[in-house]
Amino acid sequence: MSAIISGLVGGAVAAALCLVAERRRRPVDVDRAGWRSLQPGRLMVTTIVECCAMAALPIYILGTGGSTRPDVETQNLFAVLLAIGFACAAGYTSWAAYGQDVSWDNRMLRVRGAFGPTKTRRLENVVAIAIGDWSGLYRVSFNDGSTVRFSSQLRGARELSSLITDLMTEPRRKRP
Fold first, then answer.
1. What is the mean pLDDT of the chain?
2. pLDDT (average), residues 127-146
3. What is the structure's pLDDT at 26?
4. Which DSSP category does 123 fall into?
């Protein structure tokens, strides 16, 4: 089988696996205190693993002597660029999946950053929620001007966004 056909078959299998992973999303679990947390799904974990594998392949090739073709400098340069590109993609996806912990119940939103303090905000103070066109990040804006961003690929992101949208559209009740 030629390399082009092998690549096309591999790409089709990868696309089918990604489609199955996307369609089989299950809702997030509720802990004992009633909080739900955004979690990386199969698609994000698979993307991280595949990017690490694709970064390791040119590193392995370079570690065993590199290219044997006459244009060795050019091919080794492209191998280094491929390794850097896939390593950056794995790093970004890892940060989007594990860089912060976003939890919510029916009233509050809690965000724990990897290097920062835990911030808790009331969901009734949300003034807008939008999803970025090119980034795929939800952006939740609060009435004090602060924002929270999280990936739309996290498991539970749709649940949280629909809860926020429902809270924004229901009429505000006056408290005694």
1. 83
2. 89
3. 62
4. G
Q: How far is CA 9 from CA 19, 46, 171, in A?
A: 15, 18, 53
**C-alpha distances in angstroms, 156 versus 10, 29, 44, 149, 174?**
30, 9, 13, 14, 30
Cα–Cα dist 102/41, whole Å: 14
Return d(Cα 62, Cα 5) in angstroms, integer.
26
List of E strands, 7-92: 36-37, 39-40
Distance CA 131, CA 164 (A): 13
* pTM (two decimals): 0.72
Residue matched to tokens 């961003």: 149
Range 89-94 average pLDDT = 93
CA dist., res. 163 & res. 108, Å (int): 11
Q: DSSP class of residue 30? A: B
Rounded distance between C-alpha atoms, residue 6 and residue 1, angstroms = 7
Rounded-to-integer distance, Cα 4 and Cα 9, Å: 9
Q: Rounded distance, CA 174 to CA 176, Å?
A: 7
List beta partners, residue 113: 100
